[in-house]
Amino acid sequence: MDLAELARHTGAEVNKYYVGLGQTAQTVPAPDEDIVTMAAAAARQIVARHGADGIRTILFATESGIDQSKSAAVYVQDLIGLSAATRAVELKQACYGGTAALQLAAGIVARDPQQRVLVIAADIAKYDLDSAGEATQGGAAVAMLVAANPALAVLDEPSGLYTANVQDFWRPNYRSTPMVDGKLSIGAYLEAVEQAWKDYEGRGGRGFAEFAGFCYHQPFTKMAYKAHTRLLELKGVEPTAARLYADLSRTAVYNRMIGNSYTASLYVALLSLLDHAEDLTGRPVAMFSYGSGAVAELFSLTPVPGYRDQLRTAGNRAAIAGREPISYENYRAVRDFALPDDGAELTVPAVTASPYRLTAVSGHSRIYGADR
Ligand code: CAA
To answer: What phi-psi label fits residue 293: left (phi over 0), alpha (psi between -120 and 50 degrees) or beta?
Structure first.
């Protein structure tokens, strides 16, 4: 949905969204999509290219869980046909969960380099109707394969860490949308950038000038600009518009059109950078992960020789361009569609062009289908 459609409803000046938040559109998943179908669609591409040998763990990070007990990773293991000899679990810490999964995966691979770990970050960002956060909604899934000999980038040491108990964004079990203190969340994010950077420096991290790129978690793309301004000021560099544009614009191309994707957002920013930058072989990229509540991590990735052969730039662009534009009224119809919560049977209408879909709800269970 183009945010001009939302502006038509809210009465906001559309540049509040396009310029003020740095968002042009938001992804609205179809009624027959959820984090499982999105995750399976992402993961099957990586398994198709790299095979499934040695994958004994799936770590699925999300804050859009479909079940309080069973992990979404179990459905993905089944849908993409991975071995039964797999540990399949779900992780949660708001938007930070994907980075937690990545680091835990690196630990498993360090212990046994024969193993590879499938890491998935998938979320659907949904706020209350007519709330300030509604303009930042979106959704995406990213799959990553963590291995001893990575084809894309090396996960570097060290990491800068920061945790603070702050009530900026949370979702009690009985709610389908989060509680948000928007201004507090922006302040908490900025504080986390500064503290995680200081911890990173204290652990002997790379010098600021060594980075060829800066990827931030992007709840809306303007947030990356606010965060980078904070970091530049901390390092005594003037945050001119030209400097900010040079450092960030290529990381925001996809998120501008997708909206917030919580756990996936930082990794969508990385994809955007890799798909739009010059050759970054051997040139470290700073990554800042933030999950409200709040946990943050600052680390780096260094693209390896040949990484450009692994990019799926045309596919990523096609996935974004292939979304069907919808009006505000259509968006409301999708929002109003609800799965039964009383055990009733429901056949879900077929809408998505994804290789996987939610086909039915039966006996309180979600039933998925695949085109394979
Ligand atoms: N033209 C250009 N710019 C305009 C404008 C216009 N006509 N009208 C307003 N703006 C600008 C404002 O000046 C403001 O810019 P600055 O922040 O640079 O001053 C920007 O547009 C937004 O305007 P408001 O601050 O008035 O917007 P708001 O209060 O209605 O909502 C928000 C903004 C609080 C971020 C809201 O979208 C929200 O609650 N979002 C969800 C929470 C969130 O994303 N927090 C981010 C940190 S937490 C995190 O990162 C975890 C996560 O994923 C949720």
So the answer is: left
Q: Which of 21, 123, 127, 180 is the best mutation target for the ligand 1 pocket, counting ligand atoms within 8 Å of the beta carbon and taking the most? A: 21
Q: Which helix (H) or strand (E) holds 77?
A: helix 72-79
Distance CA 184, CA 106 (A): 33
Whether the ω angle into residue 100 lies within 30 degrees of 0, i.e. cis, is no
Same structural domain, 139 and 195: no
Q: What does residue 13 show for φ and ψ, rounded to 5 degrees?
A: -65, 125
Distance CA 293, CA 180 (A): 11
The DSSP code for 172 is -
H runs (alpha helix) in 145-181: none
Tokens of 314: 């045309």
pTM of the predicted protein model:
0.98
pLDDT digits 0-9 by tens, 20-47: 999 999 999 999 999 999 999 999 999 9
Q: How many domains does one find in the chain? A: 2
Ligand 1 atom index nearest CA of 17: 21
The DSSP string of 29-81 is --TT--HHHHHHHHHHHHHHHH-STTEEEEEEE-SS-S-SSS-HHHHHHHHTT
Catalytic site residue from 215, 217, 228, 297: 217
The residue from 309, 328, 344 where one domain ends is 309
**How does pLDDT run across 246-296, given as a tens digit for each residue?**
999 999 999 999 999 999 999 999 999 999 999 999 999 999 999 999 999
**Tokens at residue 267, please?**
């990794």
Is 217 designated active site?
yes
Pocket, ligand 1, Cβ cutoff 6 A: 13, 15-16, 19-21, 95, 132-133, 135-136, 168-169, 180, 182, 185-186, 189, 217, 219-220, 223, 260, 262, 290, 292
CATH number at residue 229: 3.40.47.10
